[in-house]
């Protein structure tokens, strides 16, 4: 496999991989192109001229759908989810470095949070709030629903990070006279910072796009994916694609920012170290 | 939070080095125990409040009574007997299993070869990471948008149909492309293959390359290396990916609803319909059954492969 000349296997698999990437990105690129459809164009090709009409349409007052409001809610919810996911996963990661009574149970509980069907979480949280007599809302029950989805990823990432984290660095810091807080703040935290950004990225994007778990837990006001879903049933113009393009570009920007941050933090550490 | 693992490991050393001071050791151990509990508390709280209690609520409500406007606390079992006694339920479960099996096989095949290509055929680590990211990025964008994006492809006047007609391959548009079970499977493979690629890639990357060299030196063919060395070592990744894909497909309702255009059914969709009709206890009974089925499948996968050593 590491022979100098590329084998036939390589070319077959490279072709297969290229097809896979095309399969992943092809459909997304068509709605990107179609969102620039002319004012009289429809939901499919051919393009009836090229315009920004549907993007302008998106920001006008809509008969159906509340794009601005749902975007704002999804944004705030995403940021809240990110902050909580990063902090809680970090703390849990630190806790799991030691065995404590119930650690196995808690770990499996976190894993099962991924495995339990999303619609069950949605229904469960909805019913739980109803039984308690609390009105569900996107910032309370919705937030909880999102955390059941983002936290397991965060915990798993932190678990993997600390599994490969050598305690020698902390011992060295202690030998140099650092107290526990200093050891954490100046030794551990900078070393795991890129992973924490990764956890944050997962937290935000998973929350920003989450649908199934939010359905019953969001209360009166929709998050963006719920709004988009509602629009699929009653919007039959390319404005839907414009919305898709805008939110996808936004997701890509977030990913780009997070990845650059990871690279920059990593470089800085490499320079100092 | 103030005492981190630094003292934890130091503590472990103290315990082994100085057994003569048991009292301090005991005190420190309880202290560290307390720190661990405090650190684990937020996670336990969130999962308890938004996972454990909601599931218990579902179990409770599945025994409640309901009419068209509200639900009543009660202890009745007809939510279960009605669900299990109806042949519609069994048919829908069968249909869901069918989707699960097809999507599982397809994602496993695609996911394995994509991961294999990345792990064994890409030589530079940077290139590996870049290509892996190329596969991962769509996972971080909206599922609904990715589903909608199939419409201009598969629709009656979509790209595929118009090209096929133009090329003279078919005389009139193929109807089965969109709003069909074919579309459901296609969209699910599109959405979920990543869940297979990532864990398999992870295990493949950990395979000691000298094992493969050794197999080759011993005279194994490429195919023998694949079946006797690589696949057995990739089993944990395959298991984790399978758990993801199977549970996602088993509980899916949005893909089935959107891509089949109401032509097909799944357990999740049946529940979603009951929820929209406010038949919460019936939906809850369904949910309990689905949860048991999913957990049984996961347990079966875990029996075949022990994934604990992977984490």
UniProtKB/TrEMBL annotation, chain A:
Residue span, ABC transmembrane type-1 domain: 71-258
Membrane topology annotation: Multi-pass membrane protein
Highest taxon above the source species: Bacteria
Keyword Ribosomal protein among record annotations: no
Single Gene Ontology BP annotation: transmembrane transport
PROSITE patterns registered for this protein in UniProt: ABC_TM1 (PS50928)
Keyword vocabulary terms for this entry: Cell membrane, Membrane, Transmembrane, Transmembrane helix, Transport
Membrane-crossing residue ranges in chain numbering: 12-36, 75-96, 105-131, 143-162, 183-206, 239-265
Protein name per Swiss-Prot or TrEMBL: Putative spermidine/putrescine transport system permease protein
From TrEMBL, chain B:
Domain ABC transmembrane type-1: 93-301
Keyword Transport on entry: yes
Transmembrane residue ranges: 34-64, 99-118, 130-153, 176-201, 280-305
CDD domains in UniProt: TM_PBP2 (cd06261)
InterPro entries for the chain: MetI-like (IPR000515), MetI-like_sf (IPR035906)
Listed PROSITE patterns: ABC_TM1 (PS50928)
Start-end of Basic and acidic residues biased regions: 10-20
GO cellular component: plasma membrane
Subcellular localization(s) per the UniProt record: Cell membrane
Membrane topology: Multi-pass membrane protein
UniProt keyword terms in alphabetical order: Cell membrane, Membrane, Transmembrane, Transmembrane helix, Transport
A single GO BP: transmembrane transport
SUPFAM superfamilies membership: MetI-like
Main location: membrane
Entry keyword annotation includes Transmembrane: yes
Domain of life per record: Bacteria
Residue ranges of the region described as Disordered: 1-23
Record family assignment: Belongs to the binding-protein-dependent transport system permease family. CysTW subfamily.
Identification of the protein by name: Putative spermidine/putrescine transport system permease protein
